[in-house]
Amino acid sequence: MIDLVRAAVVLIAAACAMQGSALAQDTSRRPIRLLVPSAAGGPSDFAARLITVKLSEALRRNVIVDNRQSVNGILASELAAKAPADGSTLLIGNNGTLVMNPGLYRKLPYDPLKDFAPITQLVSAGTALVATSRFTPQTFREFVTAARKDPGRINIGVAGANGAVGTEVLKQAAGIKLNNIPYKGSAPTEQAIIAGEIDVALLSVPVVAPQVKAGRMKVFGVTNAKRSNLMPDVPTIREQGVEGYEFGNWHGLLAPAGTPDRFVRDVHREVVRILNTKEVQDLVLSRGNEIIANTPEEFAAKLKREVPRYRKIIAESGIEVQ
Fold first, then answer.
1. Quick one: angle between helices 186-195 and 43-59, nearest 10?
2. What's the mean pLDDT when you consider all of the chain?
């Protein structure tokens, strides 16, 4: 009788092991959903599409871009935070969704420091203050003068959390009042500027450079500490008298917290390899971006530093917390 019981236990254990193995094999073959917190065509989407094709080849799994645009990128980030930690979900995060949103919302539906496994920062880019071609002021100083003369009349497009923080700090630093018009990401804000629906906006340099060159926008300055190689003749806002004003943006790759470390390391290794190929480097540099490609530990440390830093910036700037 005992032998029969032992045999049954062995058979059950073997069946469970086979079922677990089949499940693991099934999971490893499932497509990977790469959540992007903005519309197609924006900087976050560009960062995603830099890596998807070659990452699919390297992992032998389809990596499918899933654009989930929403105000300040909250929807995509929340979906990723609540997704199963089984290697089937990745997220493109940026300084807006990861380090600014915690200071902008009292009840954010995800915690950037607890809900994600950082993999690597991908690329960074500068930001520019641009205006529709129909806007009367021709320079940054003329823009400031116009804004001071008629407070709240000038409409500024706000693209996500990065745009919200940059806009409020700019208004405070320059001593002006503008009327904020929120948009769900960079791409719709760009179209609104071109169409003349809004007067000005803070947008990524790689996005606006070709539009400025084509005459569909005019640029008043870049927000980085130094000038952009895409627009070397455009002065920084800091150069034009707004002391201490400096903002840029970056994009990174993350997985839900609890995702197996081996998967995180495999993805990190392959993404860094992809970013270091000449093809990708040339494309990134041609758009005025810079490659970061740091380690999971370095990315995690960056988030731990930046979240409290931006909480302080937002609190001191007087931005209304939602």
1. 140
2. 88
